[in-house]
Amino acid sequence: MIRRVPGMGLAAVAFALLVPSVVYGHAERPMEYPDPSAGSVPEYRTSGPKLVVCKADSERRVKRIFKGRAERQRLRLLDQCEFRNVQAAVDRARNGHRIMIMPGRYKEKPSRRVPTPDPRCEEMFGPPLMTGTSLGSATPGNAFGEGVATGEVPTYQHHRICPNSYNLVMIAGDGPDRNRTCEGRREKCNLQIEGMGKRPTDVRFVGTRKKFNIFRADRADGIGFYNFHAKYSDFNNLYVAETNGFRFEDIVSRYSFEYGFLSFVSDNGLYKDLEASHSGDSGIYPGSGPQRERCGDYGIEVDNVDSHHNLLGYSATAGDSVDVHDSDFHDNVVGISNDSFIGGHPGLPQDCSRFAGNRIYSNNFNLFNDKRDEICVQPSMEQPRRSVCPTFAAPLGTGILIAGGNGNLIEDNEIYDNWRYGTMLFHVPGAVRGDLEPQFQVDTSHDNVFRRNAMGTGPGGAKLPNGTDFWWDEQGSGNCWSANRGSRGGQPSSDPPRPLLPGCPDLIPYPGRPATSKTSAQAPCATFDQRENREPVGCSWVVKPDRPG
Amino acid sequence: MSTARARPRRRAVLLAATVLAVGLISAGCDDDDPAGPLRWEGEPALLEAEAGLPDDRIISGEVRNSSLEPIAIEADELVVIADGEEFETDTTFLAGYGRGFVETARGYADPDDVPDFERVRTGRLLQLEPGGTTPVVVAWRDAEAGAIDGVRYPRGFLPVDVEP
Known about the structure:
The complex is a heterodimer.
Chain A: E1 50-53, H1 58-65, H2 68-78, E2 81-83, H3 86-92, E3 98-101, E4 104-106, H4 109-112, H5 156-161, E5 167-172, E6 192-195, E7 203-206, E8 213-218, E9 223-231, E10 236-241, E11 244-254, E12 259-264, E13 267-277, E14 282-287, E15 300-308, E16 312-317, E17 322-325, E18 328-330, E19 334-339, E20 350-351, E21 354-356, E22 359-361, H6 370-376, E23 398-403, E24 405-406, E25 409-411, E26 414-416, E27 421-426, E28 449-451, E29 454-455, E30 468-472, E31 480-482, E32 494-495, H7 516-520
Parallel strand pairs in A: 1-2, 1-3, 3-6, 4-7, 5-8, 6-9, 7-9, 8-10, 9-11, 10-12, 11-13, 12-14, 13-15, 14-16, 15-17, 15-18, 16-19, 17-21, 18-22, 19-23, 20-24, 21-25, 22-26, 23-27, 25-28, 26-29, 27-30, 28-31, 30-32
Helix pairs in contact in A: 1-2
Chain B: H1 11-21, E1 38-40, E2 45-47, E3 56-65, E4 71-74, E5 79-82, E6 85-87, E7 89-92, H2 116-121, E8 125-128, E9 133-141, E10 150-153, E11 156-159
Antiparallel strand pairs in B: 1-3, 2-3, 3-9, 4-8, 5-6, 5-10, 7-9, 10-11
């Protein structure tokens, strides 16, 4: 039986912080999980009030892309164009509008001209609230007499009133009240933002390192994004926060400094038919995922995505209750990662996601080499836009990493040609995320199931082994491996060796044992620093493994 | 990474120096005696370095603050010593892998802007009250794979007696 670790519920939580004048990561304000019963994944709409955005060359592009009836339809739509920039259309939009974007290249220049931060909102930063725990509570002062509060974060009002302070296109769905229902006349829920080309690349959004996000949708319940291309953001190409019901579909994301597609403290979401590549952190990131009552009830779905040439093809701190299926994660440093590393992410520790029917292969993309270092040691603003710099160390050559997770189901996947490990499972003591109480030190990794996966066999039955198919630090209870097939149908390889790998469903209770040596051997990688310590002593993660076999 | 080159002084090091200057713990007379406030809690373990790192060695254990005052020590200040020679060393005060919230590629406008709680959480800074314990993992690079004397830290020394 999978044990559900108590989650966050709908409690208000705090996140880390941002000092406006000092880059300290991309922290967030306190957020609340939406009520999943009050929302749903938005459906694609072909009717309803619309606002059309176009560029001066959209007509030429339409005539090149479309012929016949489709061309005539697009040209009639073009006749209704009122806006040159998407933000202007969003500003006009109200609940239920469709924003239809004609073929062209969109740099959102008026947004770029807004200072970061916008001085009109210089007072709209949240009170300093430090978090060192997954519960988001303020860390008490310690024996060293240090205060705990530093820095501030933009409030929701900041983003609503100064939408381009940090974003090229900002969609603040709800009004300033906290009832989380879009009942007001001027609110912007259930928007549909759609490229009107034939392919995603017909509508291109070009980001800048001077703005965190290309698109930020915040409390924008029911928002859908469709059919366009986005690249070059400083943080996220597309970002959905504190939103009930969202949809990313048929979109290409490239060369974000950190994330391609990210959702946070949101529910009823769908990532579908996406390509995400060349992100310095993750291509796909449904972090702080939905808080559902039981494992098996998923609040976000990831379907048919192709994520490649990122540091992590998919990752999610506190990536709870996400169903990832029928997708490809390949040629990343690590294909898929779920973790509980960093405090302040609602929903910790990570639990209850599913990975099924995916192809996870050839994740040997080496971002830790001398040539890359020459680029990545430069400040981020000076790095070429078309570069990928790893934001932290990761075990190069790993297919799936569960680093502090419970109750995850990994089944029916094809996992091959990952030169370190096919899958890697280890626990993360609560102290790492700032939870110091004794009961949090061994609250991961439990009840993870690995079954019916095809290991080390590529297309057409080709023998493409992983370095070791299954690696486990031997900590935790309820973890099990069954009915997995090794290369060419043989037994999969594992560390610990097979007799010590518990089977399921005839689970022999295995309480785990102190994982000191195997877990501790990973610790030197914590000293990785892109600028000052790119090859930590004792850290094998940044060393490309030899091709197995 | 810690080598023989100078490191920036930090507030924590000044605090540690102050504590040690009180003379609560007597200094050892030779390489087998501990000096300073840290003591091993149990025996440290020599871990097997993973493939691809033939010259790297790792010890893992738990240390205790045996003094009567709180201490603060930077991970960068620990150096593995053998026969008076210093080795390239990386240390973390964590039992396993952890990482910072701020992406290392970004760095900080000023490293001193990183709050201590974050540096403690990521194993870069040790803060221990009297009697408190913490895990420590020390990695060093030694192509000859010889025995070591121990780990030196600001005004302190932890002997290490493990066979290579």
